[in-house]
């Protein structure tokens, strides 16, 4: 009989109920336990426990029973706050427009529970869209599959989870977007959270009407004076065919970026009194009717087969099944915003959404409110192109139209704040080491924007100004006297360095300046920080200024950290655990890895848009181009962010050199390569008792911290440079996988 009891106990142990991965991690941390301590107690490897907490694997007997016992005891000591556990969705009969095709991760949660049911939402998430597919531990459940079977007309329990009471906007209860497809002859819309809707619309105008009247799609505004996000419809090839649109564009249409004005579908829209924006019907089309009062009637279309989702930023998302694509775009929408176009366009729209140009005034004598400028924003009107400082604009700008045709502006005429592209030959001592190790700054340009004071309005020209590090602007100043062999590191502490092994902080190529040049405020401020006096000849400064990018940075930082945490990379890991967690993180959930890529592309792309160049349009040098009509065409803000990002990196390099005597071999944008005796960043980064060098490089996932970019042999570096007869070939460009090409694969 005892053998039978033992067998029953073993059977029970094999099915011990465990909390979701996120809760397991919370309980361990609440008690101050490390992963190593738990692993030692359970007699398993550290990576095994890490996998349990990341949702990559589930414990098996006999460890499962012991692990469940540990978690049960911890749960008694540290119960979850009520807000940390989402209420179960009440069972209800749904309207006939709903069908039952729950996301597989949600279907699993009905019986076993999922991380999404216990994981707290971040303050920046739209509670409506922060449903199971966002926070669920995907590695513990099968990837969502396309639903091709018969569709019923009722909602099964679990097809959609309820957000916390009082937090759902009933206008957008079906989420921010839907992927429209055709299944068994029926048009269906795959929404976030695994919800699938029947779509009765027989034409594109009818689809737009349905979206605005019955679809309940959209997203609440991100700022008080802002506007709600318009619903986004993603059309599959099958949906395009159903609604009379081509599955792909011809070469001529690709070049034009739209289908012809005379297309039958455009005529259908016109007959139904729908309008298109000036960009026409392209990969990201906007269909609208003029607003009446505060009511908006606008739907955004995204057409993946027309290359709406650039594979450089969205990976293979265009080839995903509808439910999977809805999940990817839904996570991005909930954490960043509903896409409005490319990641670059969306990032620019995010700036405006967080700082709307206008707000409602206080009531006047008659009790009426009026539209007025919203303080802290860039306003609703673009700066007159002729009012831009000549030093800040790119070649061909209208303010430069009087320059000779083939004139090349030098440093004293043109602000040239760009990211690093610098390398040097290795020293004899470095050649005796075994490895070249690359480290990469996480979200470097986002970190450069954090807390940065930028101009909000027009610039004022000043002759012989006194430099003010708190005043945004462009300064003509000679920094050639700054000697990197002797600089201040920290307060009033002079250090001696080998300046020949360091790049200049003042030029992208790392060359020492030869005379007066234009610099953004952070660059000049760094010269002062290094201990040298500056005497600007002239400046264009902006007295109307503020930390315009802070909200943008916070939103994107939170999106990045939340998604990386879902992939098992948390912000509070030890250096060793962080490196282990980063190893293969994309494979844990390829769909969330796409979201990470899109978030990073949003940062870089939107900063590039601040100085967008002409894009065809029949433009000629000296004439204005379309982008100049935007308030967000601000090359000075772009220059300030890049300046600060480059200076932040140089400051860490100097502190590292002063403390360790180690100097970089190559730098490309946010990637730095050092020679080391071991293959890991920990083989050259100075950590003492787990703590990094203050002000130096620190391993971690937060923006501004660094991760391992790649490692190659020193012999590889020497062979590559010899093969190309280039002693200063930038090895940072190829350190990731060792493949030498002309393509910059940097972040």
Would you mind describing this structure in some detail?
Helix 19 (550-566) packs antiparallel against helix 22. 32% of the residues lie in helices and 14% in strands. A hairpin with a 7-residue loop joins strand 6 (275-276) and strand 7 (284-292). Strands 1-4-3-2-5-8-7-6 form an 8-stranded mixed sheet. The protein has 24 helices and 25 strands. Mean pLDDT is 86; it is low at 83-167 and 743-747. It starts with a helix and ends in a 24-residue tail after the last helix. It has 747 residues and is an alpha+beta fold.
What average pLDDT do the residues reach?
A: 86
**End-to-end span in angstroms?**
64 Å
Biggest sheet descriptor: 8 strands, mixed
Strand element count: 25
**Contiguous uncertain segments of 5+ residues:** 83-167, 743-747
Strand arrangement in the largest pleated sheet: 1-4-3-2-5-8-7-6
Helix content: 25-40%
Proportion of residues in β-strands: 5-15%
Q: What is the CA-based Rg, rounded?
A: 28 Å
- Please give the count of helices: 24
Structural class: alpha+beta
> What's the overall geometry?
globular
What would you say about this model in short?
With 747 residues, the protein is an alpha+beta fold.
Describe this protein with a few key phrases.
single chain; 747 residues; alpha+beta; eight-stranded mixed β-sheet; 24 helices; 14% strand; globular; disordered C terminus
Write the layout of secondary structure elements.
Layout (H helix, E strand, L loop, with lengths): L1 H13 L6 H10 L4 H8 L3 H9 L8 H15 L20 E2 L4 H9 L2 H4 L13 H4 L41 E7 L2 E6 L4 E3 L5 H10 L18 E4 L1 H6 L8 H6 L7 H8 L3 E2 L7 E9 L2 E8 L8 H4 L7 H14 L7 H12 L3 E3 L10 E3 L47 E3 L4 H4 L3 E7 L2 H6 L4 E2 L4 E4 L9 E6 L7 E3 L5 E3 L19 E5 H9 L8 E4 L3 E2 L3 H17 L8 H8 L2 H4 L1 H20 L25 H26 L5 E3 L2 E6 L10 E2 L2 E2 L13 E8 H10 L24
Parallel strand pairs: 2-5, 5-8
Antiparallel strand pairs: 1-4, 2-3, 3-4, 6-7, 7-8, 9-10, 11-21, 12-22, 12-25, 13-20, 14-19, 15-18, 15-19, 16-17, 21-22, 23-24
């Amino acid at each position: 009989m005892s053998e039978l009891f033992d067998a029953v106990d073993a059977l029970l142990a094999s099915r011990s109920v465990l909390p979701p991965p996120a809760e397991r991690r919370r309980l361990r941390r609440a008690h101050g336990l490390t992963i190593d301590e738990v692993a030692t107690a359970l007699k398993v490897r550290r990576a095994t426990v890490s996998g349990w907490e990341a949702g990559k694997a589930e414990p098996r007997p006999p460890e499962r029973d012991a692990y469940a016992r540990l978690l049960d005891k911890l749960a008694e000591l540290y119960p979850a706050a009520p807000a940390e556990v989402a209420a179960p969705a009440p069972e209800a009969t749904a309207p006939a427009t709903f069908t039952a095709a729950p996301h597989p991760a949600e279907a699993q949660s009905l019986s076993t529970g999922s991380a999404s049911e216990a994981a707290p939402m971040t303050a920046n998430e739209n509670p409506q869209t922060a449903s199971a597919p966002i926070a669920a531990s995907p590695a513990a459940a099968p990837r969502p599959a396309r639903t091709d079977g018969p569709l019923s007309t009722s909602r099964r329990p679990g097809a959609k989870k309820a957000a916390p009471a009082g937090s759902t906007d009933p206008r957008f209860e079906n989420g921010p977007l839907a992927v429209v497809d055709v299944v068994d002859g029926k048009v269906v819309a795959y929404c976030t959270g695994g919800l699938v809707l029947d779509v009765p619309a027989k034409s594109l105008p009818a689809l737009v009407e349905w979206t605005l009247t019955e679809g309940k799609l959209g997203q609440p505004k991100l700022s008080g004076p802002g506007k709600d996000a318009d619903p986004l419809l993603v059309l599959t090839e099958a949906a395009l065919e159903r609604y009379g649109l081509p599955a792909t564009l011809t070469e001529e249409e690709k070049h034009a970026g739209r289908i012809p004005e005379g297309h039958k579908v455009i005529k259908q829209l016109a007959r139904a009194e729908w309008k298109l924006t000036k960009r026409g019907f392209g990969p990201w089309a906007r269909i609208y009717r003029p607003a009446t009062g505060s009511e908006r009637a606008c739907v955004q279309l995204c057409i993946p087969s027309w290359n709406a989702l650039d594979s450089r930023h969205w990976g293979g998302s265009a080839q995903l099944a509808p439910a999977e694509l809805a999940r990817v775009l839904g996570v991005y929408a909930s954490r960043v915003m509903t896409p409005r176009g490319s990641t670059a366009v969306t990032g620019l729209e995010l700036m405006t959404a967080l700082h709307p140009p206008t707000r409602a005034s206080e009531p006047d004598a008659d009790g009426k409110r009026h539209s007025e400028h919203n303080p802290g924003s860039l306003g609703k009107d673009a700066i007159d192109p002729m009012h831009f400082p000549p030093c800040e604009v790119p070649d061909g700008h209208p303010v430069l139209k009087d320059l000779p045709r083939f004139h090349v502006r030098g440093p004293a005429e043109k602000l040239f704040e760009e990211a690093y592209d610098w390398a040097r030959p290795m020293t004899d001592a470095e050649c005796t080491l075994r490895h070249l190790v690359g480290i990469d700054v996480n979200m470097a340009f986002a970190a450069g924007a954090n807390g940065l004071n930028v101009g909000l309005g027009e610039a004022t020209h000043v002759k012989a100004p006194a430099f003010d590090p708190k005043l945004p602007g462009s300064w003509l100043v000679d920094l050639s006297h700054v000697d990197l062999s002797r600089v201040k590191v920290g307060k009033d502490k002079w250090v001696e360095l080998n300046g020949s092994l360091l790049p200049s902080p003042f030029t992208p190529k790392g060359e020492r300046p030869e005379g007066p040049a234009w610099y953004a405020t952070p660059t000049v401020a760094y010269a002062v920080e290094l201990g040298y006096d500056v005497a600007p000849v002239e400046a264009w400064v902006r007295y109307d200024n503020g930390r315009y990018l802070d909200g943008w940075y916070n939103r994107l930082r939170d999106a990045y950290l939340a998604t990386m945490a879902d992939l098992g990379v948390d912000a509070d890991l030890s250096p060793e655990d962080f490196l282990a967690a980063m190893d293969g993180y994309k494979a844990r959930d390829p769909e969330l890895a796409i979201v990470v890529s899109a978030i990073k592309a949003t940062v870089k792309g939107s900063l590039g848009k601040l100085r967008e160049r002409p894009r065809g349009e029949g433009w000629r040098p000296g004439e204005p181009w379309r982008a100049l009509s935007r308030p967000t065409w601000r090359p000075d803000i772009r220059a300030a962010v890049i300046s600060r990002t480059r200076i932040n990196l140089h400051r860490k390099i100097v502190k590292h050199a002063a403390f360790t005597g180690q100097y970089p071999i190559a730098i490309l944008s946010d990637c730095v390569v050092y020679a080391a005796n071991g293959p890991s960043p920990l083989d050259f980064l100075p950590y003492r008792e787990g703590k990094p060098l203050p002000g130096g490089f620190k391993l971690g996932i937060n923006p501004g911290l660094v991760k391992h970019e790649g490692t190659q042999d020193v012999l590889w570096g020497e062979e590559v440079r010899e093969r190309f007869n280039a002693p200063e070939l930038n090895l940072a460009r190829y350190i990731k996988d060792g493949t030498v090409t002309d393509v910059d694969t940097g972040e």
